[in-house]
Amino acid sequence: MAILKKNSDTAADGGWIQDEVGYQRTSCRTIISNLLKSLMKKRRFLCLRQKDGYQSGNTVLVEVAGDRLAIDKPVDWPGSSAPVTLVFRDDHMLINHCTVKVAAVTADTIYTNFPATVYQLQRRSHYRVDVPRASRASMTVRGESVPGFYLHDISANGILVSRRREELLAAGEEVSNITLTIPPDDPPRGNPAAQDTVIFVSKGEVTRTFASSKTRLCYAGIKLFVDSREEEALLRYVRRRELELLRR
Q1: Is the pTM of this model over 0.90?
Q2: pLDDT, tens digit, for every residue of 19-63?
Q3: H-helix or E-strand containing 38?
Q4: For the domain that residue 226 is a member of, what is the CATH number?
Q5: Last residue of one domain, picked from the residues 101, 121, 141
Q6: Does the N terminus or the C terminus of the chain have fewer Cβ atoms within 10 A?
Q7: Strand order in the sheet with 68-72
Q8: How far apart are CA 123 and CA 125, in angstroms?
Q9: Read out DSSP for 162-215?
């Protein structure tokens, strides 16, 4: 989600840091606040755990304000003042957890401090992110260079593109010389002079096609066959883009 840095206790960009045990962690208050506010607004469930073995059923976050959280008190809450671990899935269905201290308990609410750090179980290897609306792709199809594909999302091994011309691509068809041109975040945020990101992949294969009557576009999912350099360029962009989306 994210820019990863190994063997470091701080992230210069205020993002995520890779742990050795399969997690990423962040202490960036903005990222943590956005995660929790999204959890609250979308009424996604979380559960509470304590070291003595207690685990609640599903409950919800009802307030993220200043330095405290308010959680709907589970019916079986044991009344313990021991630290509580909150476990939840974020917008991308990745598992997150953080530990907080219980500050006060009322008849229906548990109040805690704001978490200092959130840990996230690292994503599946080919996680996709949406790209800015003006993103485009070009590629060689049946020996002909074809520009002007709309680029919708990207992962370390695949892309989703579309065009207004139907039946240009067919499932199982090989394509080559794939160039992805991705503008800065749309609308530009904080750096109006930022340059486009351009990523080149030597070859791929169309895995599926479908048409949308709503958008009047013909879509194609393309699996990318990448070498180590191409994969690193794709991963670098995916991590940076996810961080941009989280900071909104």
Answers
A1: no
A2: 645 578 899 999 999 999 999 999 999 999 998 889 899 999 999
A3: helix 29-41
A4: 2.40.10.220
A5: 121
A6: C
A7: 61-65, 68-72, 109-113, 102-105
A8: 6
A9: EESSTTSS-TT-EEEEEEEEEPSSSS--S-TTPPPEEEEEEEEEEEEEEEETTT
